[in-house]
Amino acid sequence: MQQLKARATETQRKTRIQVENEEKILDAALEEFSVHGFRGATIDRIATHAGMSKPNLLYYFRRKQDIYEALIARLLDTWLEPLRELDAVGDPLPELRSYIRRKLEMARDFPRESRLFANEMLQGAPRIKRLLETELKPLVDEKAEVLKGWMKAGRINPVDPRHLIFSIWSTTQHYADFDVQVQVILGPDRGAEGRFEDAARYLETLFLDGLRPKAGSAADAPRIRTL
């Protein structure tokens, strides 16, 4: 995570006013990009939403691309934090339960960020593929080895670890990207705030019951390729 550390060091050198103004710009840009996408977003509207002039904004970010990349880098750093906390020495099922819960909490608390990231992926990640290669893939590879270790030790059932991670991503992020649909289908009785707790309980049952080894069956279970 060298790039993220470098950005943190750079932030420490900035004045309080500079940091506050950059936060205003990035928050305004998040709204603009999540609604209009990269192509439809404009510097003028971002400046207006941030409550500053366009020249003032350009003092902090020279191009729309620079704002977008800074926003995505911050988003990806936040998005990956729960996966970083998956602890190899922990108990696998509680560790995975915590991960699922954290991902759902992020779906609840950061819907704009989720929408922005999903839009970038749907376009083929033209502006952040380098970040995926340098920040995302090494972390997923590292945690896939953790999962494989648990599987080899018989602590969870053998499955493809990367597809397991993909499945957790897709099921939890659904509640951010399709929240309107979720609320409509669940209806007024079940589509309120409690929908996330209901989702958490369901996903815990789905994933953890499927991964929990059955007594006496581990040795006879068919092996699934986990490479």
Structure, explained:
The protein has 2 domains: 2-69, Arc Repressor Mutant, subunit A (Orthogonal Bundle), CATH 1.10.10.60; 71-211, Tetracycline Repressor, domain 2 (Orthogonal Bundle). It has 227 residues and is mainly α. The protein is 76% helix and 0% strand. α2 packs across α5 (64-84). It is built from 11 helices and no strands.
In brief, what are we looking at here?
This protein has 227 residues and is mostly helical. The protein has helices at 2-12, 16-40, 43-50, 54-60, 64-84, 92-109, 111-122, 129-152, 161-177, 179-190, 195-211. The protein contains eleven helices and no strands.
List the SSEs and their pairings:
Elements: H1 2-12, H2 16-40, H3 43-50, H4 54-60, H5 64-84, H6 92-109, H7 111-122, H8 129-152, H9 161-177, H10 179-190, H11 195-211
Helix pairs in contact: 2-3, 2-5, 2-7, 5-8, 6-9, 6-11, 9-11
